[in-house]
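for the recovery benchmark. tokens below, seq after
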């Protein structure tokens, strides 16, 4: 059985939408409420994954706790197998989708959260995937859902599985996601379409706009220089206590073991500049191993005068790698592919993300990257601007560095669904791609300006992610909530074209 799409009310042409919304923030909940009110009864909110004040608490599905929303917990009544998830398995992308879900859910595992779920092995993850997919499918079907709204590209496991179920059941989807362009957001129907700009504007209708310099506000504390090393601070002690309390209480009575741990911690701090605080956000023995491996590269020599391609690693886990990195959420796979197309005399300068922790960075990560002869792993303080300017071209999964590169006149190779992937100067990786094709594809200011203007013409005014309000002067929450509600309502009702 499948939900009927876009059913029409008898005796008139009004489309009735039974909506399922993924909205976990106060600002998007406000927008959602406005959407319903402005729809004149065309849109009915039937399901809502949000916080405890909403129907179902979304995060309880990845933390695997029993915290309820106003409608309880989805497993409160759902205790039987219904078989609705069979369509997921019939999907040719089933294994890829399963891997994506596991990758995202793993961020809540024992190694990366003080309060973690209790999944321990691959079979646990597979079992939970099928249970959750079956339960969500049942909710969708009994509520006759025919449209699902996401306020960001699904990347948090609970939203990802809803998206995968929606695609398997052939349900319409609207995704809105904030851009780094101030007061602009994008829209799309499918994750794979991200960056596939609609060409629904005629040349004469495109109003040319100057290219902006993006404000990477989330990187403000990151420096591009070496400085005196850091020291153990109060945050480190607090996070160690949390680790001991939640993960290993027995170490409290082992002072020698604690002394050995802090000796290692102290050595790590002495290896990194002060701004790179390894244990400010989280402490785990895995973090110790990661930073010890990483510290080996802090004194590494690298010659910026050599011929090289620059590959900065995006932070993981993040949306930029999973899901919009596609199979190249495995970033070493991208680097391996890159190494195979480069001439022997060209190096790959790899720089770690300055906010990265041990996620996806185990000892085998460093062993695997050391096997790629062309790779030079540069220190954390290596200047990104200098690396970009001196590189032959830049390679990335979907990172903002790609945009910065084409704005600087550099060619870019992308491995994922970057929002700028169809811009001049950007080459999308495919089997058989040649080095010469990449370097010959250079951006020109005129074509770049036109493409950016076309993107802005297809984008929407407003803020759907509250973290980006600081990019807007004189931001007015009430005005923004109303304006974005009108836009998203029209997207749901198919009265407005999506960006991608």
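predicted aa per position
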């Amino acid at each position: 059985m499948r939900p009927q799409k876009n059913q029409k009310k008898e005796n008139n042409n009004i489309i009735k939408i039974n909506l399922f919304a993924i909205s976990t923030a106060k600002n998007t909940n406000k927008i959602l409420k406005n959407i319903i009110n402005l729809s004149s009864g065309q849109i009915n909110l039937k399901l809502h994954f949000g916080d405890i004040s909403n129907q179902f608490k979304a995060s309880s599905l990845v933390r695997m706790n029993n915290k309820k929303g106003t409608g309880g917990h989805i497993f409160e009544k759902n205790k039987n197998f219904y078989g609705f998830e069979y369509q997921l398995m019939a999907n040719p992308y089933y294994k890829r989708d399963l891997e994506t879900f596991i990758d995202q859910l793993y961020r809540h595992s024992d190694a990366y959260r003080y309060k973690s779920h209790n999944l321990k092995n691959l079979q646990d993850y597979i079992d939970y995937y099928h249970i959750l997919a079956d339960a969500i499918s049942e909710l969708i079907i009994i509520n006759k859902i025919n449209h699902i709204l996401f306020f960001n590209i699904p990347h948090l496991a609970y939203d990802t599985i809803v998206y995968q179920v929606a695609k398997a059941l052939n349900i319409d989807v609207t995704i809105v996601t904030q851009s780094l362009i101030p007061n602009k957001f994008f829209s799309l129907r499918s994750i794979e379409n991200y960056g596939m700009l609609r060409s629904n504007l005629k040349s004469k209708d495109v109003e040319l706009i100057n290219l902006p310099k993006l404000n990477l506000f989330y990187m403000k504390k990151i420096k591009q220089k070496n400085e005196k090393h850091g020291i153990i601070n109060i945050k480190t002690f607090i996070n160690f206590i949390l680790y001991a309390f939640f993960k290993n209480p027995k170490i409290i009575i082992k002072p020698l073991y604690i002394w050995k741990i802090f000796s290692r911690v102290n050595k790590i701090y002495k290896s990194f500049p002060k701004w790179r605080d390894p244990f400010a956000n989280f402490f785990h023995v895995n973090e110790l191993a990661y930073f010890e491996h990483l510290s080996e590269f802090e004194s590494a020599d690298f010659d910026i005068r050599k011929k090289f391609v620059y590959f900065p690693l995006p932070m993981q886990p993040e949306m930029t790698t999973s899901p919009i990195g596609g199979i190249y959420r495995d970033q070493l796979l991208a680097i391996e592919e890159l190494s195979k197309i480069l001439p022997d005399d060209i190096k790959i300068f790899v720089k770690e993300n300055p906010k990265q922790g041990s996620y996806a960075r185990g000892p085998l990560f460093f062993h695997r990257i050391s096997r790629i002869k062309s790779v030079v792993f540069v220190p954390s303080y290596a200047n990104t601007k200098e690396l970009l300017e001196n590189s032959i071209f830049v390679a990335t999964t979907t990172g903002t560095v790609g945009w910065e590169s084409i704005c600087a006149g550099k060619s870019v190779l992308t491995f994922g669904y970057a929002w700028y992937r169809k811009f001049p100067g950007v080459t999308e990786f495919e089997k058989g791609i040649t080095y010469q094709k990449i370097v010959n594809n250079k951006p020109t200011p005129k074509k770049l300006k036109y493409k950016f203007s076309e993107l802005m013409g297809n984008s929407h005014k407003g803020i759907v992610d509250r973290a980006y309000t600081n990019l807007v002067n004189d931001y007015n929450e009430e005005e923004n909530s109303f304006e974005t509600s009108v836009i998203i309502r029209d997207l749901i009702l198919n009265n407005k074209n999506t960006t991608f």
